[in-house]
Amino acid sequence: MVNVTITSPEELLAAQGHNLGSSSWLRISQKRVNLFSDAIGQQQWTHIDSVQSTSDSFGEYIANSYLALSLTTYFIEQLLEIQNLTMGVNYGCDNIRFLAPVPTNSRIRGHGKIINAEQKGSFIQVTIRMIIELEETKQPTCTVDMLGNFIFSERRNK
């Protein structure tokens, strides 16, 4: 279920400052961590080697920080639906911060807020601040400002 649905350019522009709420919790399994490590070609021991990992300062496996960042798209789809689009394009990210490690088998979720919505020619550029939170501590593990460009379908008044 989506928290917020936008159906028009006017609604999207008016949504600046709107809190999108929280997503559902997602467990970060060791399998997910291993698959992500394989996908990016990084086999760092803090993520996949139990002997060395338990002796480091984290004391357990941790997920790659970029895994939490990449999951922002998973969380945003639970928080916001923009309908009547011709196209939506990921424009990038600003202000990425990795604030705390994510232990494997912990659960995280995303909180979102539309911090900017601005008409730029034929599209609307939206900045959504995502905060990824660790369940056990309610501590943010990652924050990022996601930028998207959206072009709405033309309305046909007949």
Automatic annotation (TrEMBL):
<dbReference type="InterPro" id="IPR039375">
    <property type="entry name" value="NodN-like"/>
</dbReference>
<feature type="domain" description="MaoC-like">
    <location>
        <begin position="17"/>
        <end position="129"/>
    </location>
</feature>
<dbReference type="Pfam" id="PF01575">
    <property type="entry name" value="MaoC_dehydratas"/>
</dbReference>
<protein>
    <submittedName>
        <fullName>MaoC family dehydratase</fullName>
    </submittedName>
</protein>
<dbReference type="InterPro" id="IPR029069">
    <property type="entry name" value="HotDog_dom_sf"/>
</dbReference>
<dbReference type="InterPro" id="IPR002539">
    <property type="entry name" value="MaoC-like_dom"/>
</dbReference>
